[in-house]
Amino acid sequence: MSGSADIGLIGLAVMGQNLVLNMADHGYEVAVYNRTTAKVDEFLAGPAAGTSVIGTHSLEELVAALGRPRRVMLMVKAGEAVDATIEHLLPLLEPGDVVIDGGNSNFEDSIRRTRELEARGLLFVGTGVSGGEEGARHGPSIMPGGSAAAWPLVREIFQAIAAKVDDGVPCCDWVGTDGAGHYVKMVHNGIEYGDMQVIAEAYALLRAAGLSYEELHNVFAAWNEGKLDSYLIEITRDIMAFRDKDGEPLVERILDTAGQKGTGKWTAISSLDLGQPVTLVAEAVYARILSALKDERVAASEVLAPEGLPPVDVSVDDVRDALYAAKIVSYAQGFMLFRAAAVEYGWQLDHGAIALMWRGGCIIRSAFLGRIREAFERDPELANLLLDEYFRTELAAAEPGWRRAIAAAVRSGVPAPAYSSALAFYDGYRSERLPANLIQAQRDYFGAHTYERVDRPRGQFFHTNWTGHGGEATSGSDSA
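^ that's the sequence the OP posted. Answer follows.
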């Protein structure tokens, strides 16, 4: 081995193969390894035939093929497989070498791995890679974080293979230390859950309103030419037009149980941990969980069938407004989560740069993200996207149709949890006073949890003996 390869990659599933070919297209010499070594030979004889890709049949051979400092990228299943691969690599690497995890790892694992590898003199990068197979091959969105000293060593390769927007600006930049890259990818995926759910609710409402699949195709095609222009609207347009072998719409024959791989759930859990109301993503996760209860739903539909509900009466424009408004709320909640995570984990997250990284290559890419970038360029300290003048105006214009669409869904028994939860958040966020005062009174009544008063300075706490039978002591354990 010459020891001249620019980077090594472990894991030759579709994403790994396509990233390797992308790197080779950009002039980089890549050494590859797969635990099932026959896959290396198949790759070299197939998709990588005629390229500069170097095949290896052991980790020792892979490491020997790399120039120094060595850069090794893992595209293996998140969790134990990543740790096991790193453990096998460690004896073969030297201080200053870089280990890159390009899978959908939990950000807390990336925090730990950064710490552990740096303690051994190595550098770690945990990077989100979004865009699916096509993105990996021709330009994904890449969200790297980890050891800051590693960024100069991987920047050229990552930015070369990333998607480009705005006359060549790469959809890749350094996100932050330790787990920041995988955290941003996690929230990206959570927002992706939300985007897919709000589109699915539009489909459900319009289909229930009697639109044919040809009409639905035309609706999504029109939406893709306006403010909703995005990859997910584009593929929905195509799905509506796709026919099975007998000419019937294929989507109609797909079982209505949605799968998930965990990143949406992680986003919802993180929002609870950090005290941020990322309600739309949570509803999207729960909607998938509910969809998986297919047998129960079929049985329940026979017992709980709605009676006397009117048919859906809703306009295409109102559904569009509901989708658009809910989407704005979802992204606003996602960036609220970024702000809280930056404080909790000591990250310096550039919200405008994150929006730019998502504008191309990734699954949630859309023209809409350009508006988010502009909002944070106008005010880098913007507390919430809903307070930006552009988004404030857009929500005000969409609100009447948004409410009408939800009302139509409720009247006719069509579930629209994402639209409803987004509106509830919007109404709650702009409410000067919420009924939480009653909740605090209840908590103090049954558990002596104390409360603050509107006529006294914040930070002063009071307890009332509501029944005349309690004492003056306050609670230290019951935390309802």
